[in-house]
Amino acid sequence: MSERITSWHTDPSRPRFVVPAASVDAHCHVCGPMVQFPFSAKARYLPEDATPEMLFALRDRLGFSRNVIVQASCHGSDNSATLNAIARSNGKARGVAVLDPEVQSDQLEVLHNSGIRGVRFNFLKRLVEHAPKDKFIEIAHRIESLGWHVVVYFEAELLAELRPFLDAIPVPIVIDHMARPDVTQGPDGPDMRALRKLLDSRGDIWFKATCPDRLDASGPPWDAFANAVAPLVADYPDRCLWGTDWPHPNMQTAIPDDGKLVDMIPRIATTNALQHKLLVANPMRLYWPEEAQA
Ligand code: 0GY
């Protein structure tokens, strides 16, 4: 693996949908710059530099105000690139880290003071070598006093097997990309039913209504995604988040136009009230609780 990948649209359109004031892109990443922040030796893909300045330019172009930067697997558990981006954001970004199970408590404090508010557990075999559930549970207990949550990334097929693990997590849980349901099954298909069952089991499980480009092979305007996801957002309006997923790590075909991704929002959050929850109130509660409106 030596070829570096450009996984993002280099000239995204300006969205037609105008997002509410103070909107948060709650799922995005930075990669590199490689000379400053080398990629992990275990990285499964090698991206071109997707720098903080590029992310912030996209934020402004799309009309967003803040970012939640999720540590990408290509940087392993070295969060330096993510922390660098948060530090350069003038307070407009917070982050989700990937932690080494041996992380010390004083390092957790440093991460908190640097803007980290959650930890990501990635179960995608194509992205990570190991996903040690026992260590993840230990980490989840250790972050509890900081008020953090966990972000879990897995595919729909794994949900039943992961259920005891998820049940044992003592902090709020955010499910990346709704656990990648087969959206062609529609809103009442087995994958969405299983996700709803999980959401119904606890009041503190959230989901990201993200990634039509990854989940709907029919391509823009991603009708299957809109059809499957809109009822979920309507039924769980206080537990959904939205993000661009820029720079769309490792996407090599069907790279999405980020402006078109924003234009999907009113199709999955169909009223002003839902849009405000999805883009402002919900991410503020999770990432900037000290500023969130009651
Ligand atoms: C995503 C999805 C992917 C990649 C990563 O950390 C990552 O490398 O998250 C993926 O390949 O599905 O959320 O960015």
Condensed summary:
The chain is an alpha/beta fold and 294 residues long. It has helices at residues 52-62, 80-87, 105-113, 133-142, 159-167, 190-201, 212-215, 223-235, 258-268, 272-287; strands at residues 24-28, 66-70, 93-97, 116-122, 149-153, 173-175, 205-208, 240-241. The chain has one domain (24-288): Metal-dependent hydrolases (TIM Barrel, Alpha-Beta Barrel), CATH 3.20.20.
Strand proportion, as a percent range, falls in: 5-15%
**What is the CATH third-level topology name?**
TIM Barrel
Instruction: List the total number of helices.
Output: 10
The top level CATH class name: Alpha Beta
User: Structural class, judged by helices and strands?
Assistant: alpha/beta
Please summarize the sheet with the most strands: 8 strands, parallel
Distinct bound molecules: (1E,3Z)-4-hydroxybuta-1,3-diene-1,2,4-tricarboxylic acid
The CATH level-2 architecture is identified as Alpha-Beta Barrel
Radius of gyration: 18 Å
Helix content: 25-40%
